[in-house]
Structures
1.
Amino acid sequence: MARFFPALASHQFIIFFFFIILATAADDHSFVRTMDRKLLGLKKEKLSHFKLYWHDIVGGRNPTAVPVVLPSSNSSTAFGMISVIDDPLTMGPQLSSKMVGRAQGFYASASQQEVGLLMAMNFAFVEGKYNGSTITVLGRNTVFSEMREMPVIGGSGLFRFARGYVQAKTHWFDPATGDAVVEYNCYVMHY
């Protein structure tokens, strides 16, 4: 009988250890799994270049950028200002040129040393095969620099899993009204 208990204890340990391994393995991957990209219809990744003009209209009867938080009264950089935008995106620099989408989101003045904006916006396309798709841009925009670069952090529709960057260059700016036209060159990796 003395010999039976050590063998029983040994078997109980093995069974206990087996169940611990199973329980741990189930918990580690219960909400995550590896997938084949083809199951989502993702084909070969490609690089696309879009050249767009962003029209930020602050003044007038139909502004496309509206301040929702006013800047600090003692700031020379409009620090603290937040504006919500629904800016037209066109193929050419004139507002009358063909509209291909809208830049929807906000920008916030986030620098006390220079006019530096935090830009968070979706380029929501309304034209051609990209109609209904978006590119998401999030980054720092020092508006008085000749060329600014911001990352593309994602997208939707045909731009699922998008990544890349945009380069922004001011085409026209009216200091009296604050209205601006900015050329955006978007370089986007997507499927």
2.
Amino acid sequence: MCQEELRRTAAQVDLVAFFQLYNAKWEELRKSKTLTSVMLCEMPWPIFQQGCTSPDDITRRSMEEFIFHPLRPGSNIKSRKDRLKAEVLRFHPDKFNSHIVRKLRECDREKAIEIAGEVARILTNMMTEEIQREKGE
């Protein structure tokens, strides 16, 4: 195996690990009854950039790259619409604000609500377009 192939393989392994960490963090957020001090920079946002601390860090393009990445687990069996739906459920304001926000540090909660709101708006637009695409409009 040449150096370039080794680098490419290592990058793919890193990406798969990143997706696994993202899913594990969501599982912990969803299931834990005791979390109360998660830092904003530790939150799993649907982008590759780590340490997101502002709605300005979220773009539609960065979310599309993450959500539809071919190495993301399930990408070969889930439709684009199903992948979007899973993220919509995570970031829906009612669910996020009532179940997830309280697990963050008090000082990070307001900013997390802002970021999640931006994520939810982008996801809603993406889902609307996906539904229209499926209908052939």
3.
Amino acid sequence: MLRYLFIFLLLALVHLRELQCQQTAEEEQGVRYANRCEACKILAAELEARLGETGKSHDVIEIGYSVDDVRPKKRTEYRRSELRLLESLENVCERVLEYNLHKERTDSTRFAKGMSQTFQTLHGLVDKGVKVDLGIPYELWDKPPVEVTQMKNQCENMLEEYEDAISDWYFKLQQEKSLQQHLCEEHVLKQQQERECLKEQLSPKPTKQKKIKGDKEEL
């Protein structure tokens, strides 16, 4: 019995060592995957955005099935229907691939749509004829980085794991609280310290004030 326990512990240590080596190699290359807070935050934002798109319809649909087709089918508003939820959930995680990694930021706002300042600068150099070597082909520069594709996988796993929680919010609670509060704060992230990224917001760009003609500059 002790012999089997020793072998099990030895294998577990070997596996742990392999994981540590893998993480170290990734960190050395600057790879920092999304944590559960970041993944849930973006899932909630994208699903609410998708529901906002599908919720504009005022159609009334018929649901139910009758063998003899004599009994009237139940009529319901599309925006309150299960069909709308299913259509909104479909491919919602594909929207994660629209995000880029903004390495000039260190908090959860590093995942955002639009080109990062770093790549804007690099593209500008290329446009000016400067040779820039990143070790990857130029045509792959704007492809989703590994951190984003991995976050898409997290999104898909969360949808499957918390399907009931999302459904409860949609049918019963969406008028009372946001999906981020219901899904992320109350289900996915149990500990307070896990929720820090939910407070992080991208700071608005400072607006340049137009100089009014006739204003004098202070010396």
